[in-house]
Q: What sequence folds into this?
């Protein structure tokens, strides 16, 4: 039987590479561990590496470390789904209706398309998207494990 799918956004992936001082790192790592153990399959749009590396580009990491974050992300085996026309159309429509960026809405569009929950650590995005689908706030809502 296939493992259940869970979509994750950049705010969750960011915590996998952050310090323990950041809120909800432990929960994010528990989700990643479930993926690595085969209990769940994590997925995200193909934009995830770009967004994550951009986040760290503006941190105190040097270029070598930012590149390592990208390599480690790919090594985790997260399913990165292509950004095709239907997904982007859905995300653009949702973004306007929910008052979020297309960058945020593409994660929800993917989750809805795949019929799986989306886990985010972004309270602002969660507050605008949680009624549009099964969107869980990391550290508050139970993880779908």
A:
């Amino acid at each position: 039987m296939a493992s259940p799918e869970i979509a994750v956004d950049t705010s969750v992936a960011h915590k996998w590479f952050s310090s323990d001082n950041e809120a909800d790192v432990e929960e994010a790592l528990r989700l990643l561990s479930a993926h690595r153990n085969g209990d769940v399959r994590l997925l995200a749009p193909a934009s995830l590496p770009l967004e994550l590396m951009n986040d760290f580009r503006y941190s105190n990491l040097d270029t070598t470390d930012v590149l390592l974050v990208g390599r480690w992300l790919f090594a985790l085996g997260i399913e990165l789904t292509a950004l095709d026309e239907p997904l982007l159309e859905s995300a653009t429509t949702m973004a306007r209706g929910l008052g979020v960026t297309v960058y945020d809405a593409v994660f929800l569009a993917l989750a809805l398309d795949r019929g799986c929950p989306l886990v985010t650590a972004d309270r602002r995005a969660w507050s605008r998207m949680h009624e549009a689908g099964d969107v869980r706030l990391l550290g508050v809502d139970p993880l779908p494990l």
About this structure: Residues 5-137 form a domain with the Rossmann fold fold (CATH 3.40.50.1010). The first strand starts at residue 5 and ends at 8. The chain has a mean pLDDT of 94.
